[in-house]
Amino acid sequence: MTGKIYMSFSEVEKDTKLRAFSNEPELRQALVEALKEEAGEYCKKDLAEYVFRPMLERVLRERRRGDIIFSNVVIEVENPGGDLSQGRKQLHTYMNDLKSRIKELVIHGVVTNGIDAEYYVLDDDHPRLRKTGSLSDVMSNLLTIFCSQKIPIITSEELLSIIGV
Fold first, then answer.
1. pLDDT of 163 above 70
2. Per-residue pLDDT tens for 34-50?
3. Separation between Cα atoms, residue 127 and residue 108, nearest integer Å
4. Measured on CA atoms in the order 95, 97, 98, 102, is the torsion positive or negative?
5. Contact by Cβ (8 Å): 159, 71
6. Which residues are CB-contacts of 153 (< 8 A; sequence separation ≥ 6)?
7. Within 10 Å of residue 13's Cβ, how many Cβ atoms?
């Protein structure tokens, strides 16, 4: 790992192009750090500080596979600079799984390799591609939409991380 704290998606993109990440967990860590920082740009300050960042801190503590899951958002992280096709299939599966638990909500999903990204929305039976492009562009679009809506608390773990118990 680079040991660097990532302040933006463009920094993650740049370092992915420079091959600074040797594997998916390193890229995942950098992406979560960038999410925490960029949240303040797209969400109201209190929302970013007291809701969004605690959710992401929990994601970092959870050492799951390459996935980042918070609220009604799923992000599938692929190998740095790698092919998105396998991750796209996994993302759609994870989105459908989450949708089966929280039927009334729209599920947002992104698959990325640190350079390229695809943003999907699931509000019925099949994920629909909403945007494709660079990591910075796609994540900016996702955060603009996510932060403009009411942020749902999906799990008890999210609620506990927010209230600090």
1. no
2. 988 898 888 877 766 76
3. 9
4. positive
5. no
6. 71, 159, 162
7. 22
